[in-house]
Every structure is written in C-alpha cells, then in structure tokens.
User: Fold this.
Amino acid sequence: MTFSGEFLAFMGIALVAIIGGVLLLNLTKVVHMVVSLIFTFVAIAGLYVLLSAEFVAAVQILIYSGAITIIMLFGIMLTKHNDEHEPKTGKWRKILVFLGVLGFAAAVYLGIYNFNIEQVPTTLHENNTMQIGKALYSKYIIPFELTSVLLLVALVGSIILAKNEKKEADDQ
Amino acid sequence: MSSVPASAFLALALILFCIGLYGALTKRNTVIVLISIELMLNAVNINLVTFSKYGMAPSITGQIFALFAISVAAAEAAVGLAVLISLYRARKTVNIDEMDTLKN
Amino acid sequence: MMENAWLIPLFPLLSFLILLLFGKRLKEASSYVGILLTLASLVYSILVLFERFSEPTFITKFDWLTIGDMHLTAGFEVNQLNALMLFIVSLVSFLVHTYSKGYMQGDERFPVFYAYLGLFTFAMLGLVISPNLLQTYIFWELVGVGSFLLIGFYFYKDEAKAAAKKAFIMTRIGDVGLFIGMILLFWETKSFEYSEIFAAVDAGAVSGTMITLTAILIFIGAVGKSGQFPLHTWLPDAMEGPTPVSALIHAATMVAAGVYLVAALFPLFAASKTALLTIAVIGAFTAIFAASIGLVQTDIKRVLAYSTVSQLGYMMLALGSAGYVAGVFHLMTHAFFKALLFLAAGSVIHAVHTQNIEEMGGLWKKLKLTGPLFLIGTLAISGVPGLSGFFSKDEILVAAWEGGHPILFLLALAAAFMTAFYMFRLFFMVFTGEARGNQQHVHESPANMTYPMILLGVLAIVAGYVNTPWFGTFLGDWLVDGNKALEHHGHAEGSPLIMIAATVVSLAGIYLAYLMYSKRSLKRNWLSGTGDTLHTILTNKYYVDEFYQMTVVAFTKGFSYFLRFIDVFLVGGLVKGVTGIVQGLGAAGSRLQSGQVQTYGAVAFIGLAVLVVIFALTGGYLR
Assistant:
C-alpha cells in the first residue's frame, strides 16, 4: 500500500469524521454534541470531494453544516433541556444495543473488507456540476420536480404543526 | 484511478452508520436522536457516492441520488423538528423515554 | 315363554327409568309403579320356571363386538339354576317392594328409594340370566352400584356413608380377582361363554394349574360379594341401609351373587381339587367365624348380618365339598327365611325405633304377627326338623361328610350349634321377658308389611320339601338334569346319623339359649367365666376391622401420602415451574411494552443484528 497524498487525505478526513461521531456520543451538553457533529458533516463533504463529487460536497456543506445544524440548534434553544434526573432506560439496554451494533458492524464488515471492486477511469470530475445539471433536467426531471413538491409539503406541514399548537397553548 | 480502495469508504460509512444507530437507540434527547438519524442518512449517502465512482459502470446517477437523499433528509429534519416542538408544548419535555403514550 | 325371558330384567329397569324421570311428580304413588313392574317380573319368572321344568335349556346370543377373529357375544340363557335364581330374586324383590311401601312411608326420598330398588333388581336379574362371563361381570358391577346407592340411602348419616363406601371398596377388591380370572380364562379359552369355557376345560385344553388359578381368582370375586372371610367386614356395616334393603341385598340377591357365580361356574371349579378345597375351607371357616361373632352382638340387624355371613359360608362349604345341589338348595331356603327374618326385624325396629336388643324384650304380646313369623324364621335357620332350613342344612352336612373333610364337617356342626344358640338368644331377648326400653307406642306394622312376611313365612316352612330325603329329591334331580358336569354332584344320600346329629346340635343350642336368656338359670356371662377376654374379642369382631385399619388402610394411606407428596411437590412443582416460566415471560413481555419507541426500535434492531450475525456466520442458512 502506497501512502499517496490522496490516501493520507482520506485518513485525515476519516479520522475527523469518526472523532466527530464519537464526541456526539460522549459529550454531555446537547449544544456541544451538535457542534461536534458539524465536524463530521464537513469531513463527509471532504470525502465527497475525494470521490469526485464536488457539487454534492458543496450541497452537503450548505444543507447539513449550514441549514440542518442551525435548525437543530434552534430546536435546542426552543426546548428546555434538563438532563439531571435519572434516565428510565437502564444500563442493560445500552449494553445490549452496543453488542447488537457491534455484531451488526462485524457482520457487515465481513462483507466489505475483501471487497475489491474493479475500477475504471471516470470523467465524473470534469464539469461535475454540469453533468449533474444535465442529468437532473433531462433524465431525472420528474423526481426532481417531485422533490420540490415534497419540500413544499414539508414546509407547509412544519409551519402548521408548530402554529396550531401555539394557538391551543394560547387558548389555555 | 484512486489509490484509496472502495472498501475503505464503505468501512468509514459503516462506522458512521453504526455511531448514528447507537446514538439513535440510546440517547434520551430527542434532538440528538434526530441528529443521529441525519448521521445515518449521511453514511448512506457516502455509499451512494462511492458506488457512483467505483465499479464496472461508474455514472453520475449515484450523486444525483445522494442529492435527492439530502433534500429528503432536509425535509425530514424540518418536519421532525416541528413535531418535536409541538410535542414539547404538549408534554413539556424532550426526553424520549417520557414519551410513552404509545403504551395506552 | 323362555325366548322372551330377557323381558324379566327390563321391567325393573323400566321402573327405575320411570321413577328417575317422574318420581318427583309421582311421590308416594311411585311405590305402585315399582310394585307392579316387579310383580310383572315375578309372574314372568314363575312362568319361565314352570316352563323350564319341562323344556330344555334355552340360550340365545348375538354378536355384540367383533374384533378380528374375536366375537364377543351378548344374550341370555335360561337353565335350571338361572330359572331358579330368577324366581328367587324377583320374588324377594317384589316382597321387599311391597314391604317398603309401609316401612319407608313418609321418607321424603321415597321415589328415589324405589328407583334404586328398581335399578338393583334389574342388575341382579340381569346377572342371573347372563350366558357369558363378560355380561355377568357388567351386571356384577351394576349390582355393586345398586348396593352402594341403597346402603348409602341415608347419606346424611356418616355411618351410612362410610358403610356404603366400605361395601363398594371391599367388594371391588374381590372384583379385581374376578376380573383377572375372567381375563385369564379368556386368554386360555378365547371365549367368555360359559359353555365354551366348560367345553375347553372338559377337553383338557386348559392346564391344571391355570384352572386352579383362574378358579381361585374368580372365587376371590365371590368372596368379596358374598362377604366371606377375609372380605366380610363390609356386610355387617351395610346394615346402616334401610332394613328392606338389608333384606333384599343380604338375603337373596347381592350376597347370593357370589354363591351363584361359583355355582354357575361349578364345572370349572369341579375340575380343580385345590380350588374346591380352598372354597370349602374358607366357607367353613367363615361359617364358624361369623357365627361366633354373632353370639355377642347386641344390634338386631348385626346379629342377622353375621348370621348371613355364616350361612353364606355354609353355602360355600357345600359347593366346595362338591355339593352343588346342597349349595343351591341352601341358597334358596336361606333367601326365604333370611328375608323373612330381616323383614320381621324391620317390623320390630319399625315398632320400637331402636336396633339394640338390650332395649327390647317382651314384644311377643305386642307384636302378634311379627313374633310368630320371627319365630318361624328362627326355627328355620336353626335347623329344627320340618322347616326348610333343616333340609338344606342337612344336605350341606351330608355333602361336607361325603366330601371327605371330617374337620370341615365338625366345624359346620359347631357353626350349626352356634347358629341355633344366637338366633334363639336374639329371639328370647327381643320377644320374651320384660320390656327393657321405652315401649309406649309399640304397634303392629301395617298390612303391606305383614303380608310379605306371611308369604315368606309359609315359604320358609315349605320350601324345604322340594328336596328331602323323605319325599324325594325333586330339586336336586332337576338341577343336575342334562348337565354332564354336574351329574356326580347331585343329591347325596347320607347316613341318618348326620341328620340326627344336626337335630341334636340345633336343639342343644336352642336349649342353651333358653336356659341363659329366657329361664335365666344360667348366668349370661358363665361362658366368659373369669376373664372377659373372649367376650371382648367377640364383641370387637376379632379385631378384623382394626387389623385392616392398621395394616391395609395404614399402608394405603402411607402410599397415598407418598403419591400426594409426589403430586404436590413433583407434579405441582413442574406445573408451577411451567406457569412460572410463562408468567415470567409474560411479565417480561409486558415490561417490554413500555410505549417507548426507542425501546421498540432497539429490540427490533437487536433482532435484526442477531439474524445478520447468524447469516454471516453460517453463510446463509443454518446447518
């Protein structure tokens, strides 16, 4: 195995992503968790660059590191967080879930660790955004439009959900 | 041609997926559970993008699917948060272990 | 006539069914149903009996159950013994039905009583016309059920309940023997038919040991039913039932069933000297054993009960001494005079409302009809010349002498002495002397109670003349007629000395009783003399009950405690364990249903993980 620049970059990015994930699990304050996850999201964007998907990487940073994280932070701010009292779920469940996740990971890893798929030269990195744009507006035009409908529904739905309850709360 | 094998990406995706899964199943705070689910979706996106580059017939389709997945995830996050806030108004808590109305 | 003899048992069954269904509405009128239907049986039995005098044996059967080559049949048979038994049973049953109308007057379960009587009579009549062992066994058990119901009729009395249970269980012990013997016979001869069994025995198809074994096993059944030693203890206790029931069960029917069984299977028994000897020894021993207990009992019905046991021992002795005719003859005469005695005793009890003879006395003048009738029965059972008991007893003594058992003969003679003594002790204590108890309202019983007794009194006198050494042995000749196996067991001519000895002995017994209880020139306790040991032993019936209590019952109790222990701790523990596991699983499951989505998700995921791991380890499928 050669330590090419690309490989070193991958190792660094992977390290950042995993550290971000582990911090998510181990930090105590909710805000810290969310912030630690921003590292992971950015690292994943880096991975996309390595995988010749510059446009996706950009979208990743915009949507995740930007929009979703901010939404989550708003959610945290709008709700009270008191983690003082004892959790109802015991240690046993955590251990069981941990073992289950470990078993699942091992089983899947068995499947991928000798996975040597053939590589052929690609042209994905050349004018990546243009390729995506062409595909989206030709071959995938209907799913694309449907996605916009979905986003609209989600927008309206979220507003109604949040607003209705407020009215009721006012009534009370 | 990349010097990083596809299995490396897949393994990283697996690790992130497992972290997200564990977080989703054990964390008490609903916000963190939602974020963990986002992390799992991200891990899946990595797989999609990886397979758009590696394999016998690399194509842009994988990336497009990743984009769709991101937009759906964004919608899900928005709706999920809306539900969370209305629930919080009703129950005055965001701890997932206190939301047990499914029992009755 | 004979081809429709199957109707005879059906009349009482009809009575039983009618009273079962409409008894509550018929109330006292239900007695007429029972009386009329048993009268129909009686008339038909008499017709059949007379026809049988001239016609040959009638037998019919049909295939009841066919298993492979086995044909189990059902049917009925009218041979001499069966015809005679039909007559005796239906007669006594009819008289008891009539008598009960007076005796049971006012009992609120009057129709039930008649229904039970009908059931019992049906079973007994069915028993005596069965042509094969299996059918006999079925009716045999039905008789047991009937007796259980009748003995336990006063079920609110603890003693009656216990007596009914005791009768049922003790006879059941004998029935086990009968059942095993029956199955062994079937194994050997491939048939339940009497005729085929006898044919197989006659042809030597069954080994001698097997004949002895089966004969003794079947005799054990008869021991249980006929109250022979050592299974006799139920019979005196069964006196807790109503007195007409005692007359029916203990004079003519149920206890006679054992004797009947031995008589019906006599060719089988005759083929084994050992079996015959066993029967004779047990019979003789029972005769003297029960008679000695009867000497000291103070309950009028218990004296009669022990006398019954003793007389049944006589019959067994006769059969065991190859005196087929003597046994059956005594069965018949005993049925008459013992039924008479029981009914008379019932009349006495009806009058004075006590069963203790110490509280009676001087009833001769007050009970103008019952007294003489009781005296007739007493004379007959004591073997005073001229009455029926004299002839049949003489026949038995001759058979015992001819059978070649001098010791058994002497035992029988001693028992005859004791019988005469205790029967007259009973008579003197009840009817002579001064009144000892509260006897203000003593009155004679109503007519429907006295007429049956009069009829039985007549029979108790004349029934003996059908088979006497003086006027011909009609019964004996008829009974063995046309039956090869029985030809050598007919009436036997004995030395007149035996007759004289029997007469002397019984008169001596009567005289002794007269001296002790009527004239009182002998003190009542002169026999026991210095110590009361003998008296105590006799009063306590040789402690047989206590012995059973300490051995068999104690063992059974211990064993059942052991089984109970197994049941409670082993089986119960297992059951509790199973339920505990199920409950634990249920509790765990319901705890799992916490309503928390996260938990559900965790469980679902863990399940998936397990499946995936198994998949990865086994490569796709379990090996």
